[in-house]
Amino acid sequence: MPETPDGLRTVCWDLPHDLSMVGKARRIVVDTLNAWDLRDLVDDVVLAVDELLANAVTHGEPPIRLSLWAVPGEFCVRVTDHGPGRPRHLDLGLDALHGRGLAIVAALAHDHGITPLADRHGKTVWARWRHEIQNAGDTSGDSSPGHKDPRRR
């Protein structure tokens, strides 16, 4: 995957409007994050992608596009669909089976939001993570799987 001189890396996929593609999309996100040496983000990003794509397929309309981009210190995932509705945070009871997707994304990402498409029905739902830029040989901090530095939020 090519990188620009300023460190921008980006990739996107047009996906079928089918829930069965969510598992395949998770795998390509893992592969991309590993290739970009962003392994510390894998668990949170994959869960957020799962929620965003499931919402796009369930409540949106095709075409659906998954985009990933990274610059030094920042990573963003975007899911675009062309349905007229907008996702919203719901006030749910403890026994609710559905409707927690945006709350999960908000808990995982440093920032998230919804951007309406300017020229037609649809929206892009996005989530962004900040991360430390690792230098070769840097052993500071805990980089164990699942460790989340509370200062990052």
TrEMBL record:
Statement: the UniProt record of this protein carries the keyword Phosphoprotein: no
InterPro entries for this protein: Anti-sigma-factor_SerPK, HATPase_C_sf, HATPase_dom
Domain Histidine kinase/HSP90-like ATPase: 16-129
Presence of the UniProt keyword NAD in the record: no
Chain intervals for the UniProt region annotation (Disordered): 134-153
GO molecular-function terms, A-Z: ATP binding
Keyword annotations of the record: ATP-binding, Kinase, Nucleotide-binding, Serine/threonine-protein kinase, Transferase
PANTHER family: ANTI-SIGMA-F FACTOR RSBW, ANTI-SIGMA-F FACTOR RSBW-RELATED
Protein name as annotated: ATP-binding protein
